[in-house]
Every structure is written in C-alpha cells, then in structure tokens.
Design brief:
About 30% of the residues lie in helices and about 30% in strands. The protein has about 210 residues and is an alpha+beta fold.
C-alpha cells in the first residue's frame, strides 16, 4: 500500500500539535492579531481570513498534499499558531515516504521565543524520521528573512543554498513577485545528533520555566 499523508496528534510538554480543524478558527484568529510585526516575510491570515485559510488547508489535505496542524499551548489549552507537513516525495517504488517538508508555520507573538517552536519542530522531525522512515526533512523561507533562517538553523537544519525566483513573495508590496528561497534540510543520518541537541534545548527551556 502506498504512503498516505495523515498527521496524527503529536504531544509534547509545552505544545500539542492537533490536526487543524474549523474548531481552531476562533483561537487562531485571536492569535494572528496579537502583534503582526514579525510577519514581514511570512503570510499569516488576518482574523477575517482565518476561516478561508483553514478551508484552503483542509482542501490541500484532502488532495494528499498537506497535513496541517494547529499548535496548541498546553498550559492555556489555546491554539497559538499553525504548522504543517507538506510536499511529500515518495521512494521510486511509491511504497514509502522519502522526503517531506515542514512549513506553513506561524505563531502568535506571545508564543514566539517560549520554546513552543523548538518542541513543535522536534515532534514533527521525530515522527517523520522514526515513524515514517523519511530520508530527509526540508524547510525553507524567504532568503531575506534572517530571523526565520536563524530559527531554522537553531533547530538543527543545515543550510543548503538559495533558489532564485523560487516561489511567491509574501512581503508587503510584492504581490505578483517571486522571492528567493533559502533551503535547509535534516537527513536521516543527521537526525540522532539533531534529536539529542533539540532534547537538550527543550530540557533547558523547561528548567527555566
């Protein structure tokens, strides 16, 4: 049987990744409107756009292209952002997952810098490598987004280069233009060391409260 992209609930200490649903709309609308100052290179729906955003993600999921998640802060029980697996690439036999991307990620301003992102990435990477047997996990961002690039490198991904005019730009005033995308990855061979480093970061974060 071929691989089917379905993301299960992934449970951490700070964050629980729940398959995205319309029940998350109200909390995501509030999360998206807290402070939009850090979203310069990332498209994040406004409160009025959240329901349409969720419908679009669910349509991509139904087509087998995406497994979208709500990021739920366990302390408050509120959805504070979103993320996803997407662009699954199969082995030539079509019988298993070769590689997948982690993307469509955003967090409310209050959840940024709290350890939620680190633990969410840990959960997503672990499931991709240890449950799906992926050989590679990709991440990418606007090449100009130094903050996001630092965060991606901070969770253990390795910079591979910049693909020029790779995808649509989400920067203000750049509708209809293309962006250069910085590409990062983690391979299955690198995952054990990456897992250990992420585990240490998560432990230190929890110790600090």
């Amino acid at each position: 049987m071929g691989f089917v992209l379905e993301g299960p609930v992934l449970e951490g200490v700070r964050v629980r990744l729940e398959p995205l649903g319309r029940r998350h709309a109200k909390e995501l609308a509030a999360a998206a409107e807290e402070d939009r100052g850090s979203y310069g290179f990332t498209w994040v729906p406004t409160a009025a756009e959240v329901e349409g955003y969720i419908d679009a993600q669910l349509a991509r999921a139904a087509a087998g292209k995406l497994a979208p998640y709500a990021q739920v802060d366990r302390a408050s029980g509120r959805a504070v952002g979103a993320t996803a697996y997407w662009d699954p690439r199969l082995w030539p036999t079509g019988e298993g997952l070769c590689a997948i991307e982690v993307g469509f990620t955003w967090l409310a301003a209050s959840a940024q810098g709290t350890g939620v992102n680190t633990e969410a990435k840990y959960l997503l990477f672990r499931h991709a490598f240890e449950n799906w047997g992926a050989a590679r996990v990709d991440l990418k961002t606007d090449a100009r987004n130094t903050r996001c690039r630092a965060a991606i490198e901070g969770v253990g991904a390795r910079f591979e280069g910049v693909l020029r005019n790779w995808s649509r730009s989400w920067a203000p005033g750049e509708d209809g233009l293309l962006r250069d995308s910085a590409i990062f990855s983690i391979t299955a061979a690198e995952w054990p060391d990456c897992r250990a480093r992420l585990g240490q970061r998560i432990s230190r974060s929890l110790d600090r409260g």
